[in-house]
Amino acid sequence: MSSNPVRPGSGEPDTRSPFRFLLWLAARQRGRILGVAALTSLAITGLIFPPFFVAHAVDDGLVPRDWTALTWWSAGVVALGLANAAIIVAQQRALTFAKIDATYRTVALTTRHIARLGAALPRKVSSGEVANVGGADVAAIGESMGVAGPGIGSVAALIVVGVLLFTISPVLGAVVFVGTPLIVLAVGPLLGRVQRRETGYRERQGELTARSGDIVAGLRVLRGVGGEKRFAAAYRTDSAHLLRDGYRVGAVTSWVKSFEAGLPGLFLAVVVWLAARLTADGTLTVGQMVAVYGYTAMLMLPMNWILGSVLMGIRGIVAARRVTAILDLRPDLTDTGETVPGPVGEADLHDPDTGLTVEAGAFTVVAATDPAEARALADRLGRHTDSDATFGGVRLDLMPLAEVRQRILVAEDGAYLFGGPLRHVLGGDGEDVTAALHTAVAEDIVAALPEGADTELGNQARTLSGGQRQRLRLARAVHADPEVLVLVEPTSAVDSHTEAAIAARLRTARSGRTTVVVSTSPLFLDRADRAILLADGKVAASGGHHDLLTESPAYRALTDRSIGEAR
């Protein structure tokens, strides 16, 4: 259940339950769904009526040798076949559009919501879960739109067949009206097991996908500490468990599929046997016997569609449960109540927790004895978490969040790189992108790519080295050109020569613009207008780099350690 339910009709999805979400999707295209139902009814009815024409062709034309009647009834069969072909094409076309509409509507909803969640998303749900929702679950929701139309049409067709058989024989009509619900009820217990096992399987699949992503992302570290084999063994074990879960789902599904094919066949045999007995004792004519066989044979199609629709509906509900779980997530930060506009023009940033004041237009470098404290400081300065931090005297948590995001950019080392042409990954084209690449000392990356800036990069640009990805992240942040740029360890994966060039070029490119770099690198600290030592969560020292080397033993020890680690 949603912690903040959205009522249908408000333009937002109804996430109070998976079933309501599917109904909301169907309601967005109710005309198309009803059209599919009507076309399905016509298509199945069109398949049912040929036996009626064949029966008359036999009784009115073939038996009495009336060739005119035989010709007309035969022509009716041909005409019905042509008309039904056109109806089925239209039905499949409308059904395909209904599936695509639901699929891409769900993709749009989840993508927009994930964007709203922003930095809160990784803390609330794993990347593997998001990947699975965006793949298998979205596809299952699209397929579930094939339930309503064909399901309604199939039920309507069954009623038509029952009525037709009832006009021939009340006994046969009663068998259809009673037997069809019994077949659906017979499969009911298995459908419940399918839903339970499918839910467990999809949850474990999401967990395993997340783990595989973590392993790939940290493969170099795992190899460095000798943990690669241990993680690989654990992954194989979990994969084996997932495989067994998949077999269990397949086992139950296979029983449902066998009933889907077998029970209607058994039902057909019973009806045909009754019709044969009635024909033998003279209650039915030969033509009626042929019609009964044709009607009953056509029953296989709507009965299979009903059972198949129920199975697709179950998978859609399982998938919708996972989608609504993401849509029900709420951002950590939102605008509440009255907001206060930020300062006009550049202004100082102040963090009361540490006592740090970032001067407007200055190039400030913060060296922290504890990296976690430095990252927490960056989160407060960029309002990635609510705090007492101020911007030009205005509390950041009172400013409109959109304004904060527009004016202050926090770029972390692990920021996500989206797939696409390199120029799009960096956010644009032209001289400004070239300048950003120059600042990040990333021109060689573009030069080495087969199609330059037009080269397609996969998600996270995994074909590039860690240092290359880091420089692309820096180029993207510089290209954004925010009023305040906060960089967290922007050069931790590059060599000292490249780092020195980046520090010099960044200092020049951001001249007169407020820039905060969180780093213990002496190469950055030497370029700073003001170097800050952060120790025990407070500003312990500030000033010029060379002055601090002389005046602060703690600062000198920290920078000496950084030089040693770089070597």
Automatic annotation (TrEMBL):
Domain of life assignment: Bacteria
All residue ranges annotated as the ABC transmembrane type-1 domain in the record: 34-315
Keyword Membrane: yes
Molecular-function GO term, any one: ATP hydrolysis activity
Cross-referenced PROSITE patterns: ABC_TM1F, ABC_TRANSPORTER_1, ABC_TRANSPORTER_2
Record key words, sorted: Membrane, Transmembrane, Transmembrane helix
Subcellular location: Cell membrane
InterPro entries associated with the record: ABC1_TM_dom (IPR011527), ABC1_TM_sf (IPR036640), ABC_transporter-like_ATP-bd (IPR003439), ABC_transporter-like_CS (IPR017871), P-loop_NTPase (IPR027417), Type_1_exporter (IPR039421)
Membrane topology label: Multi-pass membrane protein
Entry GO CC: plasma membrane
ABC transporter domain: residues covered: 290-561
Bilayer-spanning residue ranges: 33-58, 70-90, 147-168, 174-192, 261-280, 292-314
PANTHER family linked to this entry: ATP-BINDING CASSETTE SUB-FAMILY B MEMBER 10, MITOCHONDRIAL, ATP-DEPENDENT PERMEASE MDL1, MITOCHONDRIAL
Protein name: ABC-type multidrug transport system fused ATPase/permease subunit
Protein's organism: Phytomonospora endophytica
Species classification: Bacteria, Bacillati, Actinomycetota, Actinomycetes, Micromonosporales
